[in-house]
From TrEMBL, chain A:
Complex formation: The Tol-Pal system is composed of five core proteins: the inner membrane proteins TolA, TolQ and TolR, the periplasmic protein TolB and the outer membrane protein Pal. They form a network linking the inner and outer membranes and the peptidoglycan layer.
Function: Part of the Tol-Pal system, which plays a role in outer membrane invagination during cell division and is important for maintaining outer membrane integrity.
Domain of life according to the entry: Bacteria
UniProt record similarity statement: Belongs to the Pal lipoprotein family.
One Gene Ontology term, aspect cellular component: cell outer membrane
A Pfam family recorded for this sequence: OmpA
Keywords from the named record: Cell cycle, Cell division, Cell outer membrane, Lipoprotein, Membrane, Palmitate, Signal
Annotated organism of origin: Vineibacter terrae
Protein name: Peptidoglycan-associated lipoprotein
UniProt record, GO biological process: cell division
CDD domains: OmpA_C-like
UniProt subcellular location: Cell outer membrane
Topological category with respect to the lipid bilayer: Lipid-anchor
From TrEMBL, chain B:
GO BP terms: cell division; protein import
Location in the cell: Periplasm
KW Cell cycle (keyword) present: yes
Signal sequence, start to end: 1-28
Lyase as UniProt keyword: no
Protein name from the UniProt record: Tol-Pal system protein TolB
InterPro entries: 6-blade_b-propeller_TolB-like, Tol-Pal_TolB, TolB_N, WD40
Protein's organism: Vineibacter terrae
Protein purpose: Part of the Tol-Pal system, which plays a role in outer membrane invagination during cell division and is important for maintaining outer membrane integrity.
Pfam families named among the record's database cross-references: PD40, TolB_N
Source organism, top-level taxon: Bacteria
SUPFAM superfamilies, A to Z: TolB, N-terminal domain (SSF52964), Tricorn protease N-terminal domain (SSF69304)
Family: Belongs to the TolB family.
């Protein structure tokens, strides 16, 4: 049950990311055409800009590590164009404001540590926690919460 | 010496107590009115008749504010003015008690508001025990007319104290987070209002997130979290001048601030490299001391009223629980042992309880426990009840309640007030959605 929700969530996220990219145009079969390489939209499409966490956890999931590996590969190729990789840590609404600020910070740092260990220059990595203040999905069920427990890598 | 200092302080805010009014009759033994206690709040609040104060036009408004304050406490039931038999024309005279017994009033409030030649307003009131036929208290105040609401709250506090034996909480203010906009991009700005919702104004402009305001127990100052400079940091603001400043020069996120009981220190969390610990800062010297050093999340610290201990949240045992340590740091004792996760502990200003947010099953509750963890009592519960703040008398709490989000829309978020028995629970009106209330101390007179 939990797994299927997660898979559905991941699919929805990919569609969402595609829909959001301003330079993205629908392809012949309704798939997305490639966006300009090296752009944030390209990063989202090729690598995926976010990883998800289990409830009250900050350890990286296998899916999360796979996404981060793709982020590392992308950053190796295009990272010189950006000053900073800001990692935003978030939590779902099933926690108190203060605890979730700490949890978001812990998640963001887990991503930062992983990226740095894979060779992303530590000096370009920064973190910020939004706790539960900036949900990706406004909802009050596991489907929404699972997408709000996330860390997003933002190119700056 | 003390008197003149007191006088200057009183005059500074424009409210001056000028006289304690002596009863026109010989002081009779008060025997009719039973003492009500907040602990023993019953389904039968005290019927009280609050008459319109005679004289100036503000008199009737003052009575209405007093009446609404007393009603809001849940311990009083103001009697409908339409039922009154005696019309008070001279509040200095002894009322006709049989007329007030006839409308089942246990207590009677009379008073006057009079414009003085110098432009000030003189407000006096008397509280009568109807059954005993005796004056319980009476006082007179001078103030600027614009301050009439404060005088009304001060009088309501006097009445509350005289009858319940507990300090009042009506002459107070509340800072909270006003929320507007869509659920994924909410504007969260600080606002301040009187405890009854009057004199509402915003303290921040909403361009950046402002969260978790906490009142100084001694001054009209708050500490809070702001994203104004990108990294979330703790700021200090005087709510009257709105002067604000960054508190400390930390390398990373500071949050979860709270004042010490003497207002001289602020305890808060600092998150570095994925680890959150608790630090204390001396507000004047800005010197910092580290109080916890643990790989777990240590946050939401709150001082005991004697300043000797700190209660905080930690997940060092695997899930969020409440711990108590010395104010200097060191060994911490876990005090929460019930089912579920506990967070945001707040020590009562009286020291007898610690309020908390509890997460269990699908709901969040506001509860209280003794400082040793015994006597847990849940006061309110819903999809999301969070963030208790104490009234200065330690007998009431405010918190926020968020309804579930639905259809992509954010659920409503509202402030609520509850007493320590959990029997008196009511929403607190705000112009917009509202979260994270912080109750002020009694405003200095």
């Amino acid at each position: 049950m939990k797994l299927s929700i997660k898979i559905l969530g991941a699919v929805a996220v990919m569609l969402l990311a595609a829909a959001c990219g301003s330079s993205t145009t629908p392809g012949p079969e309704g798939a997305t055409a490639s966006v300009a390489p090296g752009t944030p939209g390209h990063f989202q499409q090729v690598a995926g800009d976010r990883v998800y966490f289990e409830t009250d956890q900050s350890t990286l999931t296998p899916d999360g590590r796979a996404t981060l590996d793709k982020q590392v590969a992308w950053i190796r190729q295009y990272g010189d164009r950006y000053q900073t990789f800001m990692i935003e840590g978030h939590a779902d609404e099933r926690g108190t404001r203060e605890y979730n600020l700490a949890l978001g910070e812990r998640r963001a740092n887990m991503v930062r540590t992983y990226l740095a260990a894979q060779g992303v220059p530590a000096a370009k990595l920064r973190t910020i926690s939004y706790g539960k203040e900036r949900p990706e999905v406004v909802g009050s069920d596991e489907g929404a919460w699972s997408r709000n427990r996330r860390a997003v890598t933002v190119l700056q | 010496m003390i008197r003149s200092t007191m006088r200057r302080r009183l005059m500074a805010v424009g409210v001056a107590l000028v006289a304690v009014l002596v009863a026109p009759l010989a002081w009779a033994q008060t025997r009719g009115l039973q003492q009500v206690t907040v602990e023993g709040a019953s389904a039968n609040p005290i019927p009280i008749a609050v008459t319109d104060f005679v004289g100036d036009a503000t008199g009737a408004q003052i009575s209405q504010v007093i009446s609404a304050d007393l009603e809001r406490s849940g311990l009083f039931r103001p009697i409908d003015r339409g039922a009154f038999i005696e019309r008070i024309s001279d509040p200095g005279r002894t009322p006709r008690f049989q007329d007030w017994r006839a409308v089942n009033a246990d207590a009677l409030v009379v008073g006057s508001a009079t414009q003085q030649a110098d432009g000030r307003l003189r407000v006096e009131f008397r509280l009568w025990d109807v059954a005993a036929g005796a004056q319980m208290t009476g006082r007179a105040y001078f103030t600027q007319t614009a301050n009439w609401r404060r005088i009304a709250h001060i009088i309501a506090d006097e009445i509350f104290k005289r009858i319940t034996g507990e300090d009042g909480f009506f002459d107070t203010r509340v800072v909270y987070v006003a929320e507007t906009g869509p659920g994924n991009a909410r504007v969260k700005r600080l606002a301040i209002m009187d405890q009854d919702g009057a004199n509402h104004r915003y303290l921040t402009d909403g361009r950046s997130l402002a969260l978790t305001p906490r009142f100084s127990p001694t001054l009209q100052e708050i500490v809070y979290l702001s994203y104004a400079q990108g990294t979330p940091r703790v700021y200090l603001m005087n709510v009257d001048t709105q002067r604000q400043e960054l508190l400390g020069n930390f390398p990373s996120m500071t949050f979860a601030p709270r004042f010490s009981p003497d207002g001289n220190r602020v305890v808060m969390s600092l998150a570095t490299d994925g680890n959150t610990d608790i630090y204390a800062m001396d507000v004047r010297s800005r010197s910092i001391s580290r109080l916890t050093n643990h790989l777990a999340i240590d946050t939401s610290p709150s001082y005991a009223p004697d300043g000797g201990r700190i209660v905080f949240t930690s997940d060092r045992g695997g899930s969020q629980q409440i711990y108590v340590m010395s104010a200097g740091g060191g060994e911490a004792q876990r005090i929460s042992f019930g089912q579920g996760r506990y967070s945001t502990p707040v020590w009562s200003p009286r020291g007898d309880y610690i309020a908390f947010t509890k997460q269990e099953g699908g709901s969040f509750s506001i509860g209280i426990m003794r400082p040793d963890g015994s006597g847990e009592r849940i006061l309110a519960s819903s999809y999301l009840d969070e963030g208790p703040t104490w009234a200065p008398n330690g007998r009431y709490l405010m918190f926020f309640r968020q309804a579930p989000n639905a259809g992509g829309r954010a659920g409503s978020v509202r402030l609520h007030m509850v007493d320590i028995t959990g029997r008196i629970l009511r929403p607190v009106a705000t112009p917009t959605d509202a979260s994270d209330p912080a109750w002020s101390p009694l405003i200095p007179q």
